[in-house]
């Protein structure tokens, strides 16, 4: 049965691969054992599997603030979720534009960053919790277009002392500023008070996409300082949020599972995983350059990208691999993504032992055909109940 599921997956996804190149999946029948190869890691895959099974299985979708905050949109989303394997929603509470979408954060009102996309958060939380969903608040941390205008002293600056801008004009908050940390954690604390079970920090990194040699910070910056500073932020966040007993997580670039450095943005996946409850590598195949992993077109090879990235992550992280919850692609960007492409990523995730993942679509338009219990059992987990 296991081999039948796999053969069907390969046929329908249109993607060929060799089992000899895959990480060891969950236990398989003897006849399939010869076709698999265990990744060489410092901890056995059976031990990693035990750690993973001890964690909550998160099968999630990311929701925009407007989609989650609108009564009508939310009810329609919950209706679709009820017929799927989804058990988690990740909700954008603060976005890359610097807008804070929930009320009750004093500084957001003071600085003019509040925008009422989720004007009645209590009603929203009641609906999602009533549907039995695990709730995660996603907060963009250091990328911000609002606060640097009001408080340029808190921005990443140029040598001339004005806010630094990326190629598309975006501004950033100084990751070394404790006042910036407190502003972010005011938002996180309000989310915790509303009942969110997890706080997810996105853009927990340093600027890119521009002449970063011109970036000036409130403290001397180098690779070691940048990595340590992000670790200190997570420790500070954990201490501040401890009374609420929420989980803390961090989003990272997909390639952090593979590269040996911090990608020039301070993101060392080992350090960030050690300082958080969960880590979310954003492994969208469309975001990998042609030739990455020796794959001519990563965007058209979703299984291979996720499979290779997670194999590398297992080798890098050891026991902390159990903290991984990859973000997967459910949007089309240069390549049409439908049920086969979504299933390919889900299959690769489970073949690499992980039971948790989150799909991303910027318009909340998910490929529900790939997420029915029947589809999930047929292509991903024959034992799903």
Plain-language structure description:
37% of the residues lie in helices and 11% in strands. It is α/β, with parallel strands linked by helices. The N terminus is likely disordered. The chain folds into two domains: 174 residues, no CATH class; 161 residues, Glycosidases (TIM Barrel). Strands 6-5-4-3-2-1-8-7 form an eight-stranded parallel beta sheet. The radius of gyration is 21 Å and the shape is globular.
Key terms:
37% helix, 385 residues, disordered N terminus, 8 strands, 2 domains, alpha/beta, TIM Barrel, eight-stranded parallel β-sheet
Helix amount, in percent?
25-40%
Span between termini: 17 Å
Major sheet: order of its strands? 6-5-4-3-2-1-8-7
C-alpha geometry: globular
- Indicate the mean pLDDT: 90
Estimated share of beta-strand residues: 5-15%
Tally of helical runs: 14
Say how many strands there are.
8
Order of helices and strands: HHHEHHEHHEHHEHEHEHEHEH
Structural class per helix/strand content? alpha/beta
Low-confidence stretches: 1-42
For the largest beta-sheet, the strand count, sense and barrel status come to:
8 strands, parallel
Number of domains: 2
How much is the radius of gyration in Å? Answer: 21 Å
